[in-house]
Amino acid sequence: MLTIHTDTKVHLMSKDNAPAARCKDGETVCFETLDCFGGQLQSEAQKMGGLDWDNINPATGPLYIEGAQAGDVLKVEILSIELDDHGVMVHSEGERVTGSVVQGEVTKILPIENGCAKFNDRLSFPLSPMIGVIGTAPAGEGIATGTPGAHGGNMDCTRIGAGTTLYLPVNVDGALLAMGDLHAVMGDGEVGVCGVEIAGAVTVRVSVLKGCALPTPFLLTPELAMTICSAKTADEAADNATLAMHAFLVSELSMDAHDAGMLLSIAGNLCVCQVVDPEKTFRMELPRSVTKAYGYQFR
């Protein structure tokens, strides 16, 4: 199996990035990843203010997938996520939502023990590994790996974990897939600026879909179908995620537009992914029982 190591990483999702590796359509690939701090925080004595910000949010890659061309969709099946033996968190004055009500800054190292992240002597949380940054190269200007968008990027969606399938746009030849910023545990919103940030390894299978009409980024779990959208404001991101799912129901399931809107009001769940990045990210979740009822088959 092809493995891409952390010595090949980018901080910009860009069509100008030289491929770290190449693979065939349908091949399985392992991405080894650093945490979002680039491994800079190894003790609680180190603080967020001392970080080299040029090395934040490294994404391993990019991977060139043979046969991928602009206009295609890249199907990324997330087969497994392996985590390091410890994670790290920071919390700092002035940073994001809860930073407005604290002073100073704190770093916390969290051991990973018995399938849990140990928060303190009283609290441990079951692991729920997820990928924070995963995306393809945009067609135009490069986009920092810390920023989400139509290409994917730093979506920080808690649903993007092992056993899910993520559909991403192919904007340039080869797609140029990169990923990083794993979390051992994170709450929707990521309101304190980070989850349990952790290094690890992600194994995926990548396939090129021709003539696929899914609105990307699009995510499947065994139970749910999801549209994911990022925008400058939370309202805009929420609206766009909803409208993307509505468009999918109308175009792919041939639903009446009014029925599709009513369906989303009773069966769709609009959820925040993150509100701390340069653009905010929301997802619209719909039970796959809906698509099954209409006989729709995902590729």
Short description:
This protein is mainly beta and 299 residues long. It is built from three helices and 23 strands.
Task: Describe the main β-sheet briefly.
Answer: 9 strands, mixed
Beta content comes to 35-45%
Q: Helices and strands: which structural class?
A: mainly beta
The share of residues in helices is 10-25%
Distance between the termini: 24 Å
CA gyration radius, whole angstroms: 19 Å
Strand order of the largest sheet: 1-5-19-7-16-20-21-23-22
Shape: globular
Return the string of H and E elements: EEEEEEEEEEEEEEEEEEEEEHHEEH
- Global mean pLDDT: 96
Q: Would you give an account of this structure?
A:
The chain has 299 residues and is mainly beta. Helix content is 12%, strand content 40%. A nine-stranded mixed sheet has the order 1-5-19-7-16-20-21-23-22. Strands 2, 4, 6, 12, 14, 15, 17 and 18 form an eight-stranded mixed sheet that branches. A four-stranded antiparallel sheet has the order 8-9-10-11, with no helix packed on it. Strand 20 and strand 21 form a beta hairpin. The longest helix is centred in the last third of the chain and has 19 residues. It is globular and about 55 Å long. The protein starts with a strand and ends in a 6-residue tail after the last helix. The mean pLDDT is 96.
